[in-house]
Amino acid sequence: MWIVVYMAQNKDQVLKLRDVLEKADMLVKIRPAVSGSSSEDNCYELLVPETEAAEAHSIIIDTGF
């Protein structure tokens, strides 16, 4: 099961964090928080498998996101 570990305020932020987590060999999905909204005005959810959530949180905190 996939779980949301971070809510980003814009697409650039979520893409940067996705890259950080993928470099740590984690599976990552991103999705808009509100469907049908323009990409500029939307927030984004970053999801990882539930089994990797604790590690993802550690990486997010360590990298200053």
If you had to describe this structure to a student in words, what would you say it looks like?
This protein has helices at 11-23, 53-62, and strands at residues 2-8, 29-32, 44-49. It has 65 residues and is of the alpha+beta class. The chain has a single domain, classed as 2-Layer Sandwich (Alpha-Beta Plaits), CATH 3.30.70. The protein is globular. The mean pLDDT is 92.
Q: Helicity level, as a percent range?
A: 25-40%
Widest sheet: strand ordering: 1-3-2
In round numbers, the mean pLDDT is 92
Terminal CA distance: 23 Å
Q: Would you report the number of β strands?
A: 3
Total domain count: 1
Q: In CATH terms, what is the fold-level topology?
A: Alpha-Beta Plaits
Helix segment tally:
2
Q: How would you sum up the major sheet? A: 3 strands, antiparallel
The Rg value, from CA coordinates, equals 11 Å
Oligomerization state = single chain
CATH architecture: 2-Layer Sandwich
Order of helices and strands: EHEEH
Structural class: alpha+beta
Percent of sequence in beta strands:
25-35%
- Identify the overall geometry: globular
* CATH class descriptor name: Alpha Beta
Summarize the structure.
The chain is an alpha+beta fold. It has helices at 11-23, 53-62, and strands spanning 2-8, 29-32, 44-49.
